[in-house]
Amino acid sequence: MRLFYISIASLLAYYFDFSTMGEFAIFIFLLSAVYDLFQNLIPNERQIVLSDGTITYNDGAQLGFLFLLKRISRSKINPLQLYNDKKYAEASEEFQKIIQKGYKRDFIYGLLLSSLLQICDYKKAKIVADEYLELKPKSANDYVNIGLVNSFLDFHDTALECYEMALKVNSENVFALNNIGFTYNNMGKYEEAIQLMDKLLVLDPNFSHAYSNRGLAKIKIGILESGLEDLNHSLKLDEKNAYAYRHLGIYHLEKTRKMKR
């Protein structure tokens, strides 16, 4: 599409006399602005994550979402606002109502699934995940969340299939790679987890959970001090990483057992 606008600009530049380069630059700027406006008004269900962690969509998608809400409900409740306000239980109820009325859109399923994960309602999330999976999601992160639901419920093979689907959409999706490592740890495949976390940390050296997962895997195969280093670095990157604290407990337990031998 951008090539189309460049072609138009070239043709206009050929047929019209721009007396100065400044006039031509202004023309190109205006044409680019029109292009950006046009692109922003075309509904795109790709999530935009802002610096504060809230989720939004482009203007076209938001307008479409508001029209959708107006058509199906007289309520003025905005589920996306509830989600961004971290009122996940309420948001999940509203997203569920929308789906029950037949509006089975990818971004609604994605937000419903994320809301249920946030409140740890894995049984209900499993039902939603299975239904959404049949619709063949387009987002790598949605496949990751579907996989995560299955990981929490110990359906490891299904979880791994979902993470692989995510990687087919985006081969460098760090969340998919991390969750495969998380699942490998749960399956006792610690050496495979370490290899995968090594790969992930090349892509993103500041991924706290990757250090936490690698640390646990090292501890489980007896590399205690190197595992501890990973856990400490994980907490340095994210002091609220609950898994790192859990794995620290496992480190101290394993060290105590080793000292008693």
Structure in a nutshell:
This protein has 261 residues and is mostly helical. It has helices at residues 2-15, 21-41, 59-72, 79-84, 88-100, 106-118, 122-134, 140-152, 156-169, 174-187, 190-203, 208-220, 224-237, 242-260, and strands at residues 48-49, 55-56.
Question: How is the topology of this model organized?
Answer:
Layout (H helix, E strand, L loop, with lengths): L1 H14 L5 H21 L6 E2 L5 E2 L2 H14 L6 H6 L3 H13 L5 H13 L3 H13 L5 H13 L3 H14 L4 H14 L2 H14 L4 H13 L3 H14 L4 H19 L1
Antiparallel strand pairs: 1-2
Helix pairs in contact: 1-2, 5-6, 6-7, 6-8, 7-8, 8-9, 8-10, 9-10, 10-11, 10-12, 11-12, 12-13, 12-14, 13-14
CATH topology name of the largest domain, in short, is: Serine Threonine Protein Phosphatase 5, Tetratricopeptide repeat
Number of strands: 2
Overall geometric form: elongated
Instruction: Please give the radius of gyration in angstroms.
Output: 24 Å
CATH superfamily of the largest domain: Tetratricopeptide repeat domain
Helical proportion, percent range = over 70%
CATH architecture identity of the largest domain: Alpha Horseshoe
Strand content: under 5%
Alpha-beta classification: mainly alpha
**Ends: how far apart?**
68 Å
Low-pLDDT parts are 2-6, 48-57
How many separate domains?
3
What would the average pLDDT be, to the nearest integer? 81
Number of helices: 14
Widest β-sheet, arrangement of strands:
1-2
Walk me through the structure.
- This protein is mainly alpha-helical.
- It has 3 domains: 1-41; 47-150, Tetratricopeptide repeat domain (Serine Threonine Protein Phosphatase 5, Tetratricopeptide repeat), CATH 1.25.40; 172-261, Serine Threonine Protein Phosphatase 5, Tetratricopeptide repeat (Alpha Horseshoe), CATH 1.25.40.10.
- Helices cover 75% and strands 2% of the residues.
- It has 14 helices and 2 strands.
- The protein has helices at residues 2-15, 21-41, 59-72, 79-84, 88-100, 106-118, 122-134, 140-152, 156-169, 174-187, 190-203, 208-220, 224-237, 242-260; strands at residues 48-49, 55-56.
- A two-stranded antiparallel ribbon has the order 1-2.
- A hairpin with a 5-residue loop joins strand 1 (48-49) and strand 2 (55-56).
- Helix 1 packs antiparallel against helix 2 (21-41).
- It is elongated and about 65 Å long.
